[in-house]
Amino acid sequence: MEVRLQKYIADCGIASRRKAEELIAEGKIQVNGEIIRTLGTKVHPGKDEVRYKGKVLIPQEKKVYLMLHKPEEYVTTVKDQFNRPTVLDLLQEIQERIFPIGRLDYHTSGLLLLTNDGQLANKIMHPRYKIFKTYIATIKGIPDAGKIEKLRKGIPIEDYITAPASVRLLKKQKNQSVLEIQIREGKNRQVRKMCEGIGHPVIHLKRICIGKISLGDLKKGEYRHLSQEELEYLKKL
Ligand code: URA
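^ thats the input. predicted complex w/ uracil below
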């Protein structure tokens, strides 16, 4: 599809549309080797070659930021070696090349953020920022206060000791109980291993928050764009 030259230039991120119009009028833009000064000129992205100061301009993808309520039995990798459904199957309407920020296990449901903004994704995943993540874990049996304290203080898992966590016992049922667990690390299967570590394996696991970003009442399998406020919060971290 053809677009106006000034829009094409703006989409490349080098100038606003207004500024792009000035660059065109000033004779600073070449299309297919020819200087173009006419504002309405249309170009075909991918076919026509647009240059500014000798450099070819390539349009950048618009940045998108989404949250998905991941259902169980979806992988958070972009491709799966066993051909299992991936979270991207639920986001086929999104044209941009998005990827998940971090992981959730195949059997874990809940809040997953996705974007095509690599810089922000790296920041959120980097351990330095220590963003807390909140999980609701339904576990086998009912842990006593001592075991819950162990989870809080940190327990040995394989070759490391987990960092202090916030843990609340939300519900006691006959053969199971429900914990809210907040951790700032994100080691592989960490919550499952922590609960196993105190002898109460996880039955269901759901992530409800990443920092202050909350899943709210988004239904399983559904997604939405982050609000401006949510995005600003993530960018400020
Ligand atoms: N901890 C787990 O054990 N699984 C997840 O998916 C996320 C955190």
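The CA atoms of residues 206 and 227 lie 22 Å apart.
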